[in-house]
From TrEMBL:
Pfam families: Glyco_hydro_65m. Residues 1-22 form the signal peptide. GO terms for molecular function: hydrolase activity, hydrolyzing O-glycosyl compounds. Coiled coil: none annotated. Keywords: Hydrolase, Signal. This is Trehalose and maltose hydrolase (Possible phosphorylase). It comes from the Bacteria. Residues 307-499, 525-600 form the Glycoside hydrolase family 65 central catalytic domain. It comes from Lutibacter flavus. InterPro entries: 6-hairpin_glycosidase_sf, 6hp_glycosidase-like_sf, GH65_N, Glyco_hydro_65_M.
Length: 676
């Protein structure tokens, strides 16, 4: 009996693997389900395992206070992603379906659900967050009748309860002979900071969308201001199909003076643009994104995992937005949607290598908020610019006041400067350096000169901080904080030299003398009083990568051996990514691959492989962890280095589990690197 059960499970596993390839991840199992978001850098839709349902919608960079005495929190959007479909008077539910399957197509950024409804119909629908119409979603539906059936389809705009005074309407707009039915809800956000407008409509592909007399009759049903519905009924003859779409757009006063009208215009654009043209534009933009790609030969699972990480980075960013990416991207309201060092240190480097367009948006997000950072430095008694640990649309500190990270985790200011100089290293865009890069680097360098404390021996300390290892609070001379400050001061000097600007001599004086503490055997100390405690995540080892402050092999190995054992099980995924990069650069492919897998595999959640922040948590998609995992491939196995001469390759190394590694679209010249 056990052997029979094992064979059944093996056959089931094989059939599921056979449904997957390097671009598509499919599932036929909805147990312990964690969905995968479809997003376009402005909105994110999280599909459900339930038929025609979307869990929630996230609006990028649209904030209101979480509570009257709370900090800002990113908005849940009005949920326009839920349909109700009835066949012969029965609502389609999980219990009435068979042959259920879902597929994420990473290449085209689409999410398809298909199933059989009783013995009556084959049903499929595909969800898009349109890259070409970034405030809009599109659900393309096909119902294939096995026998003649009567259908009723209801599209809904469900407004979260936290919104105020929703006004829900249905109107048929008309211009000459063109008629445009619009379901719409407009409401104030939870504490009234923003007005949000959502418009939606049906599209029938096989009829002239502008002619109301050719469409099924539309029935408006406003259950309440929070539940706005539009329905139609249609008979489908045996062996024929009903093909239609439900499209919606959502805008807010964060981005538009008149979000109601703008949402209508986007829906009208989708209504009156042929489906083939609309989706072709979306797919073409994604094809351009995938010019920056990582291709693994010989290990399908690693290929899928890597592509899924890239898919999320591309989904959550836009080159035309000057916005950044929060740790959970547009998959949830995790961390209130705020921006952390997660962007600059973890997500940004892969994007800088593979897509400078999105990378530029991430750094421009910071430079747009420079004046606010300068005010923060002044308000805490320092000079220059001091960036917030958690940033929102304003650029002010958005960390809850009780969290000491917001007041004391200062390495973020250096992390921002490091990202800026690396952007120039890769792009060599001197105009950008003069207008945006150098002003940041200068103000950050001035901050660190004012932030340090001079010791009696002429060295400098940085006191009373929370480091990357957040388990140690209010400590002195945290290794990574000090190392990142040294690096930021060096980069400011290089930027000034590049532009022919006089260098502040204090930048070199301080940078050359900030102290890094050591144990008697030469192992780097995490802080001045560190004594072997468990650490939350990589800290000391960041001095080797990405900072390149520790570079001699003896110290590298001492630090690796010592701190790997200190990493907390509940810590975030990125720590082991750093260890993997360093081992790869030391030529140790075995340990590098071991840590590469350990950096994310325990965090994968079924059925698509969404990443949670830690092995013991369940809050995907943690795109910070994906950024770390991708860095092991690019900067470890791929041997890529960001240098004053741009991106170069040194000593790549291939794990024995892979036949080859190909990295395409690297840098301004879109180079290809192959490791065999």
């Amino acid at each position: 009996m056990k052997n029979c059960l094992h064979l059944i499970l093996l056959l089931l596993s094989t059939s599921i693997i056979g449904q997957n390839d390097a671009w598509n991840i499919s599932t036929t199992n909805s147990e312990n389900y964690t969905g995968i978001v479809v997003a376009n850098g402005r909105i994110g839709l999280l599909p459900s395992e339930k038929p025609f349902e979307v869990e929630h919608i996230i609006l990028n960079n649209v904030f209101d206070k979480a509570s009257p005495l709370g900090v800002s929190k990113i908005l849940l959007g009005m949920n326009f992603g839920n349909l109700e479909v009835e066949i012969d008077g029965e609502k389609i539910t999980e219990e009435l379906m068979s042959n259920w399957k879902q597929t994420l197509n990473m290449k085209e950024a689409s999410f398809t659900t298909s199933f059989t409804f009783k013995d009556k119909a084959e049903v499929s629908y595909t969800i898009y967050a349109l890259r070409n119409v970034p405030y809009a979603g599109y659900i393309d539906v096909k119902i294939q009748a096995k026998k003649t059936i009567k259908t009723k389809v209801t599209g809904k705009i469900i407004t979260p309860a936290e919104y105020q005074n929703p006004m829900s309407t249905f109107r048929v707009l008309k211009d000459l002979e063109t008629t445009m039915p619009i379901l719409q809800t407009v409401a104030k956000s939870r504490l009234g900071r923003h007005t949000v407008g959502t418009s939606a409509t049906f599209i029938w592909h096989d009829i002239n969308s502008s002619r109301i007399d050719q469409r099924p009759e539309l029935i408006h049903n406003k259950v309440s201001g929070y539940d706005n519905r539009l329905s139609f009924e249609k008979e489908i003859k045996k062996e024929s199909s009903l093909d239609f779409a439900w499209t919606a757009a959502q805008c807010s006063t964060q981005d538009f003076f008149d979000p109601q009208s703008e949402s209508e215009r986007f829906v009208i654009f989708n209504l009156l643009t042929p489906k083939e043209d609309l989706l072709k534009q979306h797919k073409s933009l994604w094809e351009s994104l995938w010019e920056g790609d990582i291709i693994i030969e010989g290990d399908l699972q690693s290929q899928q995992d890597i592509r899924l990480g890239l898919y999320h980075l591309y989904s959550f960013g836009r080159g035309d937005s000057d916005l950044s990416i929060s740790p959970m991207g547009l998959s949830s309201q995790g961390y209130n949607g705020h921006i952390f060092w997660d962007t600059e240190l973890w997500m940004y480097p892969p994007l800088l290598v593979l897509n400078q367009d999105i990378a530029r948006s991430l750094v421009n997000y910071r430079s747009d908020r420079l004046e606010i950072a300068k005010k923060k430095a002044l308000n805490f008694g320092f000079k220059g610019a001091m960036f917030p640990w958690e940033s929102d649309d304003t650029g002010e500190e958005a960390t809850p006041a009780w969290a000491l990270t917001g007041t004391f985790e200062h390495h973020i200011t250096a992390d921002v400067a490091i990202a800026f100089w690396n952007y120039y290293r890769v792009t060599k865009n001197k105009q950008w350096l003069a207008e945006r890069g150098y002003p940041i680097l200068k103000e950050v360098a001035d901050y660190w000169v004012s932030r340090v404390t001079k010791n009696n021996d002429g060295s400098y300390s940085i006191k009373n901080v929370v480091g990357a290892n957040e388990f140690a609070q209010n400590i002195d001379d945290n290794a990574f904080t000090n190392g990142s400050a040294i690096t930021a001061l060096q980069f400011a000097q290089l930027a000034a030299k590049e532009l022919g600007i006089a260098i502040n001599p204090n930048w070199k004086k301080v940078g050359d003398n900030i102290i890094i503490h050591k144990f008697p055997d030469g192992t780097t100390k995490e802080n001045s009083t560190y004594n072997g405690e468990i650490i939350k995540q990589a800290d000391v080892n960041l001095l080797a990568y990405p900072l390149n402050i520790v570079s001699d092999k003896e110290t590298l190995l001492k630090d690796l051996n010592y701190y790997e054992a200190k990493l907390a099980e509940e810590g975030p995924a990125m720590g082991k990514s750093v260890f993997s990069v360093i081992y790869a650069r030391l030529g140790d492919a075995e340990n590098a691959f071991r840590l590469f897998k350990q950096s994310y595999e325990p965090n994968k959640r079924p059925p698509f492989g969404a990443l949670s922040e830690a092995a013991t948590s369940n809050n995907p998609y943690f795109v910070t962890g994906a950024g770390g995992m991708l860095q092991t491939v690019l900067f470890g196995f791929g041997g890529l280095h960001i240098t004053e001469d741009g991106i170069i390759q040194k000593n790549p190394i291939l794990p024995k589990q892979w036949k080859s590694l190909t990295i395409t679209g690297v840098g301004n010249n879109k180079k290809t690197y192959i490791v065999k």
